[in-house]
Amino acid sequence: MSRALGPRPSLAPGGTAGCWAVLAACWGLVTLNGIVWAAARIAAGLSGGAAEPFGIKFAADVLHGRTSTAWPHTPTPAVMAVTAVLLALAVTVVALAGRAIARHLPVPGDSVAALAANPAMAALTRLPAARTATQLRRSLADADPHRLDTSEVGLTLGRLIRAGRRLGPAVYASWEDTVVAFMAPRTGKTTAQAIPFVLSAPGPVIATSNKADLWAATATLRATEPRSAVWLFDRKYSEVL
């Protein structure tokens, strides 16, 4: 995890919320003035009128109701109608943008987002894991990490999920790492973890299980590999003998 679970930190730390609110209000007024000026230009173009250049004088004329100066020979109702349309478009764009941004913001306690933003996860991606594999195994000492087969890199743990639930890069555990999986009963510990790890191991494997399914799924395949042998120790079976 890249941060502790809990409420999301404030976007305006240190009591700066008031300053940001004033700044947002100022830029909001500038934006509103720009929308009105754009509407006046559009209405003037449609009606054959004119409009003042964008600036403080235009804003002052509109604020004091001097519409004949702000947009001479241009119908004010036309300017108001175009302004309403532009405001509706602006609100729609801002709402869609805010919705898109909100999807990428992590909710408090979101472990997926915490892992995706954790810089330590970069060491588990393919190239760093491949470099680690060439350092751990003498048989790969001269191998190019960029061309190393996926089965030689390490144990495939899964893929990171990026913001917006996009699939990110695959992550691997090296052969010297310890993997601990906390999973409920019947959630795929054997099929998703134990069996793939046993079959993908490039060397000897010691596997223990309180059921026979791990041995049944891996023994035959492991025995067919060159210079491989499979030994089974089953206490119940030995007691029967």
Main sheet overview: 2 strands, antiparallel
Rg value: 33 Å
Determine the fraction of residues in helical runs and give it as a percent range.
40-55%
Mean pLDDT score, rounded? 81
Structural class: mainly alpha
Number of structurally distinct domains: 3
- SSE series: HHHHHHHEEHHH
Question: Which segments are poorly predicted (pLDDT under 50) over 5 or more consecutive residues?
Answer: 1-7
Annotation field: number of helices:
10
Beginning-to-end CA distance, first to last residue? 50 Å
Which of globular, elongated, flat, extended, rod-shaped describes the shape? Answer: rod-shaped
Binned strand content: 5-15%
Per DSSP E runs of 2 or more residues, the count of β-strands stands at 2
**Strand line-up across the major sheet:** 1-2
